[in-house]
């Protein structure tokens, strides 16, 4: 049997990959740092609050919220417990399916996300959008969507989420 040779990266591809890998490592840490410093929450906690803030009636099934927030069910359950203790989220059984749980953003949670969003958006703008031209911003969006479809072809369509 003749084993197929790996398709090694060219030098240019390797430089591109290393740049992307650095972004994948450094950007989440920078976003987390800002949110911890300014609001006392993690980026994942912010994502949960933000997803709920954009959902109809500020409510989502926990399973859907885990997909939207990009975390496992167990991680989300732990974080939802912390957010619930802070008074920002309320969990209740899903009346349509008793096996499921709904997460709802409380009024206090709405106030938290409203107070936190301006600083977070400014950080995102400074780290991601300001260094790029408008053309590069559009290209980044196209590239991100293309890679996301390749990585998760059957997964959630976050482009359709309004939050």
Automatic annotation (TrEMBL):
InterPro entries xrefs: HTH_MarR-typ, MarR/SlyA-like, WH-like_DNA-bd_sf, WH_DNA-bd_sf
Xref: SUPFAM superfamilies: Winged helix' DNA-binding domain
Gene3D superfamilies: Winged helix-like DNA-binding domain superfamily/Winged helix DNA-binding domain
Gene Ontology MF terms in the entry: DNA-binding transcription factor activity
Sequence ranges assigned to domain HTH marR-type in this UniProt record: 17-149
GO biological process assignments: response to stress
UniProt-listed Pfam families: MarR_2
Name used for this protein in its record: MarR family transcriptional regulator
């Amino acid at each position: 049997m003749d084993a197929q040779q790996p398709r090694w990266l060219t030098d240019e591809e390797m430089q591109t990959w290393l740049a992307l890998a650095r972004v994948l490592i450094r950007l989440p840490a920078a976003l987390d740092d800002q949110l911890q410093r300014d609001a006392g929450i993690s980026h994942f906690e912010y994502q949960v609050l933000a997803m709920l803030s954009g959902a109809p009636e500020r409510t989502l099934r926990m399973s859907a919220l885990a997909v939207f927030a990009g975390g496992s069910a167990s991680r989300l359950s732990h974080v939802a417990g912390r957010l619930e203790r802070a008074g920002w989220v309320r969990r209740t059984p899903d009346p349509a399916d008793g096996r499921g749980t709904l997460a709802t953003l409380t009024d206090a949670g709405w106030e938290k996300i409203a107070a936190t969003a301006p600083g977070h958006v400014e950080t995102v703008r400074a780290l991601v959008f300001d260094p790029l031209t408008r053309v590069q911003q559009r290209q980044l969006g196209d590239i991100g969507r293309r890679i996301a479809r390749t990585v998760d072809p059957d997964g959630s369509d976050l482009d359709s989420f309004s939050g």
